[in-house]
Amino acid sequence: MTWPVRTERLSLRPAVAADVDATWRIRRIDSVVQWLTAAPKDREEYRARFEDPGRLAKTLVVELDGEVIGDLMLAIEDAWAQAEVADRARGVQAELGWCIDPAYGGRGYATEAVRALVRLCFEDLGLRRLTANCFADNVSSWRLMERLGMRRELHTRRESLHRSGEWLDGLGYALLADEWRG
């Protein structure tokens, strides 16, 4: 695969350690951090998480005119399979995630970036299935999933403990390669 991946307005590329400050700037905005899996208390804690080789390998940054405006997660996974066919289920699907600076909201950048990620997954990586999850109250996130043609497969009731102390509903979406090509 050749990097960066370019869209009409954006570039996607693998994250590097030097992206820590640009992504930290976005991930500490209140309207962003409320939905993130982890909320590091300071830059140093964030840097340690960001630079972890396992996480860094799953992270792409989104750039607009050379400025980082967000990041994407691409976590390639094995599908569930019975033991006799487990070898055919290795590395065939991925979980996606995204974090876009709200200052760039409402202009289609998140849709453009994640659409490019979906194309990359199905065309370049040959994956068969993509999933994405969010809190049900994260309307922007699940609307993005629906704009991309993802199908809601799961709505859990008060299954996810939020850092606010509340148990919130969760949503899970998926898209198959043949659905995307259709």
From TrEMBL:
<dbReference type="InterPro" id="IPR016181">
    <property type="entry name" value="Acyl_CoA_acyltransferase"/>
</dbReference>
<dbReference type="Pfam" id="PF13302">
    <property type="entry name" value="Acetyltransf_3"/>
</dbReference>
<protein>
    <submittedName>
        <fullName>GNAT family N-acetyltransferase</fullName>
    </submittedName>
</protein>
<dbReference type="InterPro" id="IPR000182">
    <property type="entry name" value="GNAT_dom"/>
</dbReference>
<dbReference type="InterPro" id="IPR051531">
    <property type="entry name" value="N-acetyltransferase"/>
</dbReference>
<feature type="domain" description="N-acetyltransferase">
    <location>
        <begin position="10"/>
        <end position="178"/>
    </location>
</feature>
